[in-house]
Amino acid sequence: MRYIALLRGVNVGGKNKLSMAAFRTRLEAKGFESVASYIQSGNIGLNSELEAKHVKYLIEQLLEEEYQYKLPVLILPQSVLHSMVKAHPHTDLETDIKYLHFTLLHTNPSKAHRKYFDDLEIAGEEFLCGDSCVFLHLPNGYGRAKLTNGFIERQLKVSATTRNYKTIQKLVDL
User: Fold this and answer.
1) Per-residue pLDDT averaged across 125-153, rounded?
2) Which of left, alpha, beta for 168 (phi over 0: left; psi -120 to 50: alpha)?
3) How far is the C-alpha of 122 from the C-alpha of 97, rounded, in Å?
4) What are the structural domains of the chain?
5) What does the pLDDT read at residue 156?
6) Sequence-distant (≥ 6) Cβ neighbours of residue 166 within 8 angstroms
7) What is the pTM of this model?
8) How far is CA 123 from CA 4, 98, 109, 143, in A?
9) What are the Cα distances from residue 86, in Å, to 6, 101, 128, 156, 163?
10) pLDDT single digits (tens) 49-78
11) Phi, psi of 14 (to 5 degrees)
């Protein structure tokens, strides 16, 4: 199966530096096949016959043992990302895709947290919360948004990682 691994907090602001080329080599040594990465921020495609939870475990173990990093890792079948791209509710708008983002949730939020989050209104920002993803339309740009990864995590009480539309599309094609 083709999986996409999203490592949170890699090569951001000088922290958790990780050479993607070296990490790809380490993943291949662990038995993963067709390992590829996109940019330097922890986006990896790989093939494995293992279940997603085992792929996650092996990658987290590698990060901790080889690099001393305890980082959240999200593993999704590539087909799930493809479905998310098709499901983004704002792609039918006449908007530049640079304003579209996906905040991918590591677990489903509770009904109470989701209800509270769904009732939020943030001027100039649009979102739709699904079970595993918050679809964002941020016309003022992500850098000025209130709906940041940290904000969403605090509101929904789940771990998450955010990628822009272009990155998710590249991972679908990876």
Assistant:
1) 94
2) alpha
3) 20
4) 2-78 (3.30.70.1280), 88-173 (3.30.70)
5) 96
6) 97, 98
7) 0.91
8) 33, 19, 23, 15
9) 19, 13, 14, 24, 15
10) 999 999 999 999 999 999 999 988 999 999
11) 80, 5
Name the nearest CA neighbour of 7 among 119, 104, 95, 92. 104
Query: Which residue from 50, 18, 54, 53 is spatially nearest to 37, judged by alpha carbons?
Result: 18
Tokens 């999704």 belong to which residue? 76
Would you say residue 118 has pLDDT above 80? yes
pLDDT at 95 > cutoff 80: no
pLDDT of residue 90: 84
pLDDT of residue 93: 62
- Total residues belonging to the chain: 174
Integer CA distances (angstroms), 38 to 44, 57, 80, 129, 169, in order: 6, 21, 18, 26, 11
- In sequence order, the β-bridge partners of residue 77 are 3
Q: State the average pLDDT for the chain.
A: 92
